[in-house]
């Protein structure tokens, strides 16, 4: 068996769900096809298969479609060709000139020549596509428009035949230009990466192509230059504008060891950067790939409209045929009159506005979110965001900065504050617990040396603390429960611990086997925006915002009161957080979970929408999430929930407008009170309105 591979093809005639179904059917008959995904907006098909790529392309071509292979790298379409713009402009000019000539000087013959020229210029590509569709026995919009134009010409209505084709070509051009706009933000992102870099080697500096740089290389970035690669600062310090990547509006200070992203703008300092990934695998390129994957994930509404269109087009076509033949047979009018009415119905049956109502809105929303610094994994996530009625939020690293600081050291025996800190920091230096870093940093800040402290037989006590032999005696560092287990917790000590925890602090007790020796309290600083975000999110989703944390009750409830959350669940293990999410879903409906740690990953995957902190979150959390906040803060949460609801509203508005317009003109066309060109104009106008309405979602959020 040959190795599995992926083929990406551009299919120019891929306009709606009908063509997608025909290509699916054609590929479904080819052995070795694994999966296929379609992007109607970009007119692309991505196929995973075991056969050769030529077989895949041949199957699609045999179904009557033209294919063009595109690179496997994230592909961003070029702008609409100028030749197409000039062709449509020429057809419009010829049509308008014919109308003016016919109605001002009575030159019917000359006007007919101009109408025929307009038909030829605008209609030739449409007729070609219609011919391929007819050979493949495929009823699509090109066949409908060609049939309507031919019918109008047979009736001697050359002006109307030209109007049908010109207005349809103009509609397709405007659609293409609108889609170009949705791609511009992604093109602009990729253009931020410099094509060349300054490489630093033992032999000096040299300018090389950016794609030749590999992990482990050192590159020099001068003041005011764009950073060309992802990496860490090896030498120097500077401030970096990361707004194109993370949405963070303020420059971020970078020094040795700080991570930097390709496409960011360097400030006033020159820095040397150690490359961690090649240019083709930078965060910038992964964002583009992320958006490309999101396009292929359809919303429930999009699936519904495509199923509806599958029956709508042939249904209206059958109605048009019935209108052309049944009334004249019954003696209700002349053949020419009813044939003309059937052409009007045929024109209005074009489903473009309906089928574009969802994908363009989704693409615009996802692209606008990327520009803001929010990555959304597809239209289905936007669907769920619109339905969220409760939000669960982790504490550490989400509502707080995730960086603890020592707030107090309490003497309980003969040890001095310095001795308490030295001993606890020396023991915690061997620990992987987040609180250990706070103790070690505080010891360093006070100039206390801990590396030489003799620590032996270190052992972690899961969920409670650590213990080790220091200076020949067993010492323990842990939480209130650990002290209880050691049976050395007095009422006085319990009260002192309770007082500190009531202030939102976490307490570590240093003790030997017989008595407590001292306490160190630490506190994780709450994000400045947390309280306002909690209030705004509650207002938007119309349901509770709940705090989920593994912290102790007193600390969790103190934070909950300060932020105004609706409920606090404390002392939770990862599986407890999953159960809490499931309970919220049963009580309130769709639920979102916001978190950043490894222990949040199961809850993120369980929630209807999992939201991870991109700047501070773990890889496990980010992989489990549906949404990633790239700047690592929660400030964009209100924007995210508003975007879900706004996208849902835009899509529903698009569908209602499209169906209402078609319904009205189907009735008017059947009654004979509208013309062929007015019907196609109405259809094109509503398509343009749908596109413009969807493009409003491209706006960068705040």
- Helicity range of the residues? 40-55%
For the largest beta sheet, what order do the strands appear in spatially? 14-26-25-24-15-22-23
Low-confidence parts: 72-79
Q: What is the tally of beta strands?
A: 26
Ends: how far apart? Answer: 52 Å
Number of helices: 25
Helix/sheet category: alpha+beta
Shape, principal axes of CA atoms: elongated
Largest sheet: 7 strands, mixed
SS strand fraction: 15-25%
Radius of gyration: 33 Å
Question: What number of domains?
Answer: 4
Mean pLDDT: 82
Task: Write a brief structural summary.
The chain is α+β, with helices and mostly antiparallel strands and 702 residues long. α3 (82-104) packs across α4, α6 packs parallel to α25 (676-695) and α19 runs parallel beside α24 (637-671).
């Amino acid at each position: 068996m040959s190795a599995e591979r992926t083929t990406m093809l551009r299919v120019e005639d891929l306009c709606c769900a009908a063509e997608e179904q025909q290509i699916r059917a054609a590929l479904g008959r080819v052995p070795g096809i694994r999966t296929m995904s379609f992007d109607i907006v970009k007119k692309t098909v991505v196929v995973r298969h075991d056969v050769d790529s030529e077989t895949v392309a041949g199957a699609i071509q045999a179904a009557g479609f033209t294919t063009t292979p595109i690179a496997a790298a994230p592909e961003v379409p070029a702008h609409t060709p100028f030749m197409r713009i000039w062709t449509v402009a020429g057809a419009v000019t010829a049509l308008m000139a014919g109308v003016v000539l016919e109605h001002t000087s009575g030159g019917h013959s000359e006007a007919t020549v101009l109408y025929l020229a307009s038909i030829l210029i605008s209609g030739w590509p449409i007729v070609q596509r219609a011919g391929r569709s007819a050979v493949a026995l495929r009823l699509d919009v090109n066949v409908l428009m060609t049939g309507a134009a031919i019918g109008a010409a047979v009736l001697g209505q050359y002006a109307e035949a030209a109007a049908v084709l010109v207005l349809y070509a103009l509609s397709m051009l405007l659609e293409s230009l609108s889609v170009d706009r949705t791609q511009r933000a992604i093109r602009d992102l990729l253009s931020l990466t410099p094509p060349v870099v300054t490489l630093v080697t033992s032999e000096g500096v040299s300018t090389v192509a950016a794609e030749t740089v590999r992990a482990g290389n050192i590159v020099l970035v001068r003041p005011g230059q764009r950073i060309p690669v992802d990496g860490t600062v090896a030498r120097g310090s500077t401030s970096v504008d990361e707004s194109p990547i993370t949405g963070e509006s303020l420059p971020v200070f970078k020094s040795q060891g700080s991570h930097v992203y390709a496409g960011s703008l360097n400030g006033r300092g020159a820095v040397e950067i150690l490359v961690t990934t090649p240019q083709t695998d930078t965060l910038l390129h992964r964002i583009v790939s992320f958006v490309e994957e999101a396009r292929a994930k359809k919303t429930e509404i999009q699936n519904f409209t495509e199923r509806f269109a599958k029956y709508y087009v042939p249904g209206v076509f059958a109605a048009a045929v019935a209108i052309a033949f049944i009334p004249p047979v019954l003696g209700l009018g002349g053949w020419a009159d009813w044939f003309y009415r059937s052409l009007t119905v045929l024109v209005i049956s074009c489903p473009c506005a309906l089928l574009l109502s969802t994908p363009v809105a989704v693409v615009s929303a996802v692209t606008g979110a990327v520009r803001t610094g929010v990555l959304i994994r597809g239209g289905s996530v936007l669907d769920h965001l619109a339905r969220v009625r409760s939000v669960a939020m982790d504490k550490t690293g989400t509502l707080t900065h995730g960086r603890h600081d020592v707030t107090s050291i309490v003497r309980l025996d003969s040890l001095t504050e310095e001795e308490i800190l030295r001993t606890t920091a020396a023991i915690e230096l061997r620990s992987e617990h987040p609180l250990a870093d706070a103790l070690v940093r505080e010891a360093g800040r006070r100039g206390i040396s801990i590396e030489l402290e003799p620590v032996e037989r270190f052992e972690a006590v899961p969920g409670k603390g650590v213990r080790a032999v220091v200076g020949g005696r067993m010492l323990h560092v842990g939480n209130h429960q650990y002290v209880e287990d050691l049976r050395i917790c007095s009422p006085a000590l319990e009260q002192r611990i309770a007082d500190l925890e009531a202030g939102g602090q976490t307490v570590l007790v240093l003790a030997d086997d017989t008595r407590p020796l001292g306490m160190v309290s630490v506190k994780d600083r709450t994000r400045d925006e947390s309280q306002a975000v909690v209030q705004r999110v509650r207002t938007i989703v119309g349901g509770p915002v709940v705090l989920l944390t593994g912290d102790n009750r007193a600390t969790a409830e103190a934070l909950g009161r300060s932020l105004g959350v609706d409920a606090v669940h404390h002392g939770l293990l990862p599986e407890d957080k999953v159960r809490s999410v499931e309970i919220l879903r049963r009580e309130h409906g769709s639920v979102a979970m916001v978190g950043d740690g490894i222990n949040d990953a199961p809850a993120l995957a369980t929630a209807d929408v999992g939201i991870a902190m991109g700047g501070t979150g773990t890889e496990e959390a980010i992989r489990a999430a549906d949404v990633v906040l790239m700047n690592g803060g929660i400030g964009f949460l209100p924007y995210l929930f508003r975007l879900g609801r706004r996208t849902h509203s835009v899509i529903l508005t698009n569908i209602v407008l499209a169906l209402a317009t078609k319904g009205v003109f189907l009735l008017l066309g059947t009654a004979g009170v509208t013309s062929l060109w007015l019907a196609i104009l109405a259809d094109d106008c509503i398509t343009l309105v749908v596109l413009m309405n969807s493009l409003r979602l491209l706006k960068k959020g705040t």
